[in-house]
Design brief:
Strand content: 35-45%
Largest sheet: 6 strands, mixed
CATH topology of the largest domain: Rossmann fold
Number of helices: 9
Helix content: 10-25%
Low-confidence stretches: none
Strand order of the largest sheet: 7-8-9-3-10-11
CATH architecture of the largest domain: 3-Layer(aba) Sandwich
């Protein structure tokens, strides 16, 4: 197991985190830029010494500031995949993978490097230079290089951020399979919750140098502990004042006008969250159909195609986002300036106190 404790000054805030990753499992450190995620990775890799810290991988202590232990980066059995992959442009693919294997003969280095490239489907590109490779190929070369020394842990800093949107989805699936097969603990840094959900078995959300919530991706999405976590996981967040209603329900009088109902119990200032795909778009004066208790009049502000779906930006006292099919856009004549009703169920609405 890889266990990390780190406390140190970071600009305007203090980093204070405790996280662990288990063999064959990936811990995703997720949060906004400047939250301290990459600093944790650098501490584990030995690139930064915190004021107080402990890094232990199985029975090896890589860092213990209390005991004065600080193992040099090159002596930590740790594979590191940098955000831009940091491949050597003057070396071909197999030479990049073999770079850290200088204790072996050239023949042995090449054999091990080509075996890893073959595992990632890149053997035909073994003699290609990085500048001739696609973003996905470069990523796989970087991961192969990190695995070449048979590390006890893997560290990945924003491994998909350098890829275009078309490549990112397939590269993410391939990387998730690699992390599972590696059978070593891995820690991955990302600012994208969807990426954390694909790659991470467990997610620790970091904000301002602190882990504000951790759990499986499903747990974070279903039960966000704060408005920040709800927003980070992709939910629409609406603020208001909650009060008890009949039948165990809660009514929220929204800031800016309107009401919504939730099956969660709360009272006082709250943040209400709902995911864009839970929101149904109907014509403004359409008869009420179904059991959705929440119905807000809204104006379409923007219409954006994202993959096979369309994201609608809505103004309804507070901003809303809904996701619909391309067919629905045509059928409902959805365009900027159109007035519609946005509806969703009380059971789809989570409440957290603010």
């Amino acid at each position: 197991m890889l266990h990390v404790e780190a406390r140190t000054q970071l600009g305007d805030f203090d980093l204070d985190v405790v996280v662990s990753a288990h063999p064959g499992r990936c811990l995703a450190l997720a949060g906004p830029s400047g939250a301290g995620k990459s600093t944790v990775l650098r501490i584990v890799g030995g690139l930064l010494r915190p004021q107080q810290g402990l890094v232990r991988c199985d029975d090896q202590v890589w860092l213990d500031t209390a005991l004065g232990i600080n193992v040099a980066p090159e002596k930590r059995r740790c594979g590191y995949v940098f955000q831009d992959y940091a491949l050597f442009e003057h070396l071909n693919a197999w030479q990049n993978v073999a770079y850290g294997l200088r204790h072996l003969s050239r023949r042995e280095r090449q054999h091990r490097a080509e075996a890893l490239l073959d595992r990632f489907g890149l053997l035909p590109r073994a003699r290609a230079r990085p500048h001739t490779m696609s973003g996905g190929e470069r990523q796989r070369v970087a991961v192969a290089r990190a695995l070449a020394r048979e590390p006890n842990a893997l560290l990945l800093d924003e491994p998909l951020s350098a890829l275009d949107a078309r490549t990112r989805a397939s590269a993410g699936r391939e990387l998730a399979a690699v992390l599972r097969d590696a059978q070593v603990p891995s820690i991955l840094v990302t600012h994208d919750f969807s990426e954390a959900a694909v790659l991470g078995d467990h997610v620790a959300v970091i904000d301002g140098g602190r882990v504000v919530q951790h759990g499986t991706p499903g747990e974070l999405a279903a039960t966000p502990a704060s408005a920040f976590v709800a927003d980070f996981t992709g939910a629409v967040v609406l603020t208001g004042i909650a009060r008890p209603d009949t039948h165990g329900l809660t009514v929220v009088d929204l800031d800016g006008g309107g009401q919504l109902t939730s099956t969660d119990r709360a009272e006082g200032p709250v943040a209400a969250s709902v995911y864009p795909w839970e929101i149904v778009i109907e014509p403004l004066n359409a008869p009420t159909i179904g059991s959705a208790r929440n119905r807000l009049r809204a104006e379409v502000v923007s219409v954006t195609t994202v993959g096979g779906r369309v994201r609608l930006g809505l103004a309804a006292g507070q901003p809303l986002i809904a996701e619909v099919s391309e067919a629905a856009v045509g059928e409902l004549d959805l365009r900027p300036g159109a007035h519609i009703t946005a509806s969703w169920k009380a059971a789809a609405t989570r409440l957290v106190r603010t």
